[in-house]
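U., I forgot to send this yesterday:
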Amino acid sequence: MSVPQLTPSQRVQQRHAMMRALDAGTHTVAALAALYGYSEKTIYKWRRRWREAGRTRAGLQDRSRAPHRCPRRLAAAAQATIVALAQRFPEEGLVRVTRRVRAAGLLTSVHGVYRTLLRAGVYVPRRRRRPRRRYQKVVHTVPGAQVQADLLQLGRGRYQLTVIDSASRYLDAVLLPAKDVATVTHALTRLLTRLPFPVQQLQTDHGPEFTYAFLPHVQRLHPLDRWCAAHGIHHRLTPIAYPQANGKVERVHRICRQEFYRRYPLRAGQTWTAWLPRYLAYYNTRREHGSLGWRTPAEELARLTAALPQPPAILTHV
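Result:
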């Protein structure tokens, strides 16, 4: 067996030296096997190839070790379908592409899709970074128990204000021209009001558009805190320098960038205002989520709502 550190050209050079020693009669096959660490069978194999190639280095090159036939490999048409789906939805990962492949009638695994895309050069695996620490996952089972809100900056003078339910992942958003206190508070109160469930807790970061906690010189109450107190909503602030606490809204911002803003760039004279409601409808009613058992937010909301304890019926005298 050759030394693993040798390059292909170095291995060819080593085999050429062995063949020259055999032709010159200075070494036997057994001596070369002991000297280089090969088996005698391997040296006989290279001597046969050396002679078949007319004693040229072409016979000493590495050959493919792939099997002559792979009965379990996907057919060429199936591989072309997988590659076409991956190229059509470049923002989706292997699991989502596999679900689309199965919906197209091809029974294959995630590993099969991975090998097909890797062989075609469509998928380039990224090196995963080890997480610095383990994060505590908070699970809510009641819609509205916690709604996370945050701002996504899309450019100069363009922002997306997003709210997402922690339990059902139900999403709502609106585009804003600025992020001042009055604009954000007015838009956020409208978003919270039109959610299809009562909100018990609102979670935001320490941005001045959400709270005055980082402005000790401001003695008055923030308009958002005043509105939340009037409607019985607890306003919770995330820990400082810990965006993972608002992980659901941070993750949905990444999804919006990949699936909406980057996929549908603006042309001259166009705005996203008319297109955002369509994407929100798609996200809530048609986009399946792996964290929800591949249910849509609307389906998860209906399931969680049906599981809530119903108030006792009020009997009246007839």
